[in-house]
Design goal:
GO molecular function: glutaminase activity; pyridoxal 5'-phosphate synthase (glutamine hydrolysing) activity
EC number: 3.5.1.2, 4.3.3.6
CATH class: Alpha Beta
Number of domains: 1
Distance between the termini: 20 Å
Shape: globular
Number of strands: 12
Largest sheet: 7 strands, mixed
CATH topology: Rossmann fold
Radius of gyration: 17 Å
Helix content: 25-40%
Strand content: 25-35%
Keywords: Glutamine amidotransferase, Hydrolase, Lyase
Number of helices: 7
Structural class: alpha/beta
CATH superfamily: Class I glutamine amidotransferase (GATase) domain
Function: Catalyzes the hydrolysis of glutamine to glutamate and ammonia as part of the biosynthesis of pyridoxal 5'-phosphate. The resulting ammonia molecule is channeled to the active site of a SNZ isoform.
CATH architecture: 3-Layer(aba) Sandwich
Order of helices and strands: EHEHEHHEHEEEEEHEEEH
InterPro entries: Class_I_gatase-like, PdxT/SNO, PdxT/SNO_CS
Bound molecules: glutamine
Length: about 250
């Protein structure tokens, strides 16, 4: 199933507003929308950016951002508000474009390790296992320069990592129900960052995409760098214009 074709003149993007950097995401989305319209020679869509706290608000959205915060708390609150199943439907059945940052990435993973005792509920959508709090506690927060191949050439992106998760495993179980629902789209690594000293060789995966679902370990909304928001919004518009073909097919 694909996202229904919508009038791309009117696009509503929601930011899940249970906790975390909601206002910051909306502010960067507004800047990104202004940039898209100033760069385009043809009319760009009219965007509405709304905070989502109810299933009714979610149903108005063509795309969604799940911000950072605390995924365990977010799951509990979403469950209490009756939002968890509508969110699963939005991401995994309607295949509407969804981007999770930090705790949002945890929520969009199909599995997580280093969870609290008893585990935690997830939305799923990305066939990955995330390792929560990979870099330690709040005190080990850092800003690291990232080279993100999907962005235009330019300065490295300043990645803000706060108790950040990383993708520790890409789950490729053939015949897995979720994979089938995601139209066979495979997980694509969109960004990596060198493993901290003493924690192994190579790079950690800090950004992934699978079909319409995108996740970053870091917090672009806590910078004034609008590039990822602009890139994502463009993917959303292109996907809706083509009647719901998912964003992975666009690039
Ligand atoms: N900055 C964040 O969003 C932290 C995420 C948090 N460690 C979690 O697992 O939910």
């Amino acid at each position: 199933m694909t996202v229904d074709a919508v009038n791309p003149q009117q696009i509503t993007v929601g930011v899940l507003a249970l906790q975390g950097g909601v206002i910051e995401h909306i502010s960067l989305l507004q800047k990104a929308a202004a940039q898209l319209s100033s760069r385009s020679s043809t009319p760009t869509p009219q965007f509405s950016f709304i905070q989502v706290r109810t299933a009714a608000q979610l149903s108005q959205c063509d795309a969604l951002i799940i911000p950072g915060g605390e995924s365990t708390t977010m799951a509990i609150v979403a469950r209490r508000l009756g939002l968890l199943d509508p969110l699963r439907e939005f991401v995994k059945v309607q295949h509407k474009p969804t981007w999770g940052t930090c705790a949002g990435l945890v929520m969009l993973a199909s599995a997580a390790s280093a969870t609290k005792q008893g585990g935690q509920e997830l939305i799923g959508g990305l066939d990955v296992k995330v390792l929560r709090n990979r870099y330690g506690t709040q005190l080990q927060s850092f800003v690291g320069d990232l080279r993100l191949p999907f962005l235009e050439e330019g300065e490295p992106f300043r990645g803000v990592f706060i108790r950040a998760p990383v993708v520790e495993e890409i789950i490729t179980t053939a015949g897995d129900d979720e994979v089938t629902k995601l139209k066979g789209k495979q997980v694509e690594v969109m960004g990596t960052y060198p493993k901290p000293q003493g924690t192994g060789e190579g790079e950690d995966i800090v950004a992934v995409r699978q079909g319409n679902v995108f996740g970053t370990s870091f917090h672009p909304e806590l910078t004034d760098d609008v590039r990822i928001h602009t890139w994502w919004l463009k993917q959303v518009v292109e996907g809706l214009k083509s009647g719901g073909r998912d964003v992975q097919a666009q690039s």
